[in-house]
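Researcher: Next entry in the queue.
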Amino acid sequence: MKIRAITLNNVRRFTDPAQVTGIGDGINVLSEPNEHGKSTLFDAIQALFFKPFGSRDKEVSALRPHAGGAPEVTIEVETEAGRFALHKRWLQKPLATVHREGKLIAQADEAEAWIAQLLGGDAGGPSGLIWVRQGMTALTGGSTKEEKLALEARRDLMTSVGAEVEAMTGGRRMDKALAQCREELAQYATSTGRPRTGGPWKEAQDQVEALTATRDQLAATARALQDALAERQRARRALAELEAPEVVAERREKLEAARAAHAAATRHAEEMEALSRAVELARLNADNATSRLNNYRAGEAEQKAARRAEAAAREAAEAARAALSDRRATLEAAEAAAAEARTALKTAEDDHRHALRARAARDGADRRQALEARIKEAEDARRRMESARAAAKSGPDAAALQRLERLSAELSASRAARDAAAPQVTVRYAPGQSGAIHGDDGPLADGAPLPLPRRTTLRIDGIGDLEIEPGADGGEDGSVDAAAARLQTALDEIGAADLAQARAAGAARVEAAAREGEAKAVLASLAPDGIDALHQALAAIPAPEEVSGAPDLAQAEDALQTAQTVHERCRIARETAAEALADAKADAAGKEAQLASLSDRLQRAEAQQAKLGDVTEEDLAAQTVTTAAALEAARLAHAEKAKHAPDAASLQAALTRAESVEAQAREEIARLHPLLARLSERITRASGDAVEERLAETEDQLQAAEAALARIAHEVAVLTRLQEALQEARNEARERYFTPIVKELKPLLQLLWPDAELTWGEESLLPHALIREGREEPIEVLSGGTQEQVALLVRLAFARMLARAGRIAPVILDDALVFTDDDRIERMFDALHRQAGDMQIIVLTCRQRAFRALGGQALRLQAVAP
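Model: Structure for this entry, 866 residues:
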């Protein structure tokens, strides 16, 4: 069996028909985001194959949409016998059908039996083995019933392709021999192969360990005695060398010589320090003399320069005072001219305003007339808008009309569904008899089917009345009356007799709203700020008045312009004179400040020279020569002393070394005396314990204990090997039972883990451990990703075994790889392609980016075109 198309209707979110088509052989991938309907599609497939059409359990009820309705699922499958369409509907008018090329071949219970036979008569086969719902990444899980069905499916499948379960037991004789072997082995070892506490093996081991420890302790004591003898000899030799009289005298002579040389170097350094201080004092005297001479010469130069600068600044300050007086007189004249210009400008402005008022009085009458007409038009537009607004409030709005249209469509759909399900009669008139049969709506048309949802009377001309009773299943379930009642209730709410009247009222409401919009637009164009603003503008226009004695407007404007020009010229002249006066003030202030600064400079220069007293430049020059000669003499004395200075660092190092040698000798002598005493005492004590004799005796006892332990270990090894041989013989029979599934799994496992194997549980018929690199890892301790990879590979192997048993079914995986990393998911894709050669695999996933690398046929779940 291979699935070719799936159609859903009224299944959860799919209230309108949706389908997946173009499902081919090999790998098919439906990759869509979350909440797109992939899990719904999987549950729908499960329901069609495993839920009877009359079921109302929670799984079937979970398929119903929130809005209600009867879930329907149609799946097109292809088998060796051809292509078939399987259809089921639950809850309302439940139905199950099987069609072949449009022809009904089974329905109701016969359709259920046909579908069960299609699956090989197995209630849990594909679902329990190769159909993986979202979240079921392991081999176990689901309800107790689902796990039981899956176990039965595995047992039936493996029994049909492998040996019987009894063939792997190995017989009771093997069980008895294996039990006796284990019993004897248990006297020596635990189940893990370790020596049993209190047993012969453990006691022999403990005795060997105790004798070994004693032997090692005695051997260590003997070695310690030999080491102590050697160490005492070395200590005596070292002490004799250190306390030899000639060696002691040589150390003391070297120490005294180093101390004398170091004391001579210290005295020479003190003399050098005194000469250095004398050089520094001479340098300070020479520097002071030079500084006084330089200061004297700089003060003389500064006094002369300050006198010249002060005289020049005084002349500049007197010139600035004269310029300031001239600028002040110019400003006074400019201010008088500006006052006269302001008076003339005020007179011209008064005349101009008088002329403007006269012209405004003439223009006001025309403006008032135009504004009054505009106010009248705006008030008419407002009245039309208010009238249209009142009309637009009556009648149904768009939402109410949409609701009526929907209820009308539901009524039509209910009638159509009722008529489709009801019995029908079709009249075929004989020639010349057309229109001889009459129904409630008039004569029946020739060849037109007439549905009979309820009791109906047909009148036949010339014969009589024909009453037809469709029976309890005639198709009248009350849905049409309910739909009609809902439509009538909605019409009553808006006060309409029928849908046509409601539509007319709605159209009138829309037309009134349009008139309101037009009137509102006209009002906005005439009075954008409102009619009150127009009234305020009208009130602002002055009333007509008589203005007499007004000058001519053109002459008044010329006079005003002339006055403004004169006033501006006088203003500029005044501002120029004010700026010139400000500049003169600033210049005079600057010159005065400069004069004060230079006067202060001259006073400071004179005071500085006065501090030097009556000394002359010649006296200061003579002092400079004298102090320079004294500095040179001090430097020569210091240099001469430095020529014969000893190397203080080398002498200090020699003294340190001599003191260190002496200290080390004393410390070593102090250490060796007590060490020799301790070693002598240790040697005397050990010599009296007969350590070497006890060591030889212990080694003989250890050899005997090791021989006894070897005999017991040999017996344990023989029993262990016997147990393994018996277990291997038993396992060989068991492995023959699991050989088919192991054979199918081996190439798949090698894609992920070369040389890996799975061990199988006899009760669960599932893998219970993964063996990699010789290490057995229970399935439950593996990572989530590894568990789901093993589970998927096992399901692919089961699918191949189903196919070999003649029970071909597609593999359906709903988000079966959620924990697998990028590297392993590529190899899992290879496994899927390896198994998809002659099988059909349907993959449902939300991991669109990761599953692009899977390839295969891309599927889409989309609405059915109307």
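Model: The mean pLDDT is 76.
Researcher: Noted, moving on.
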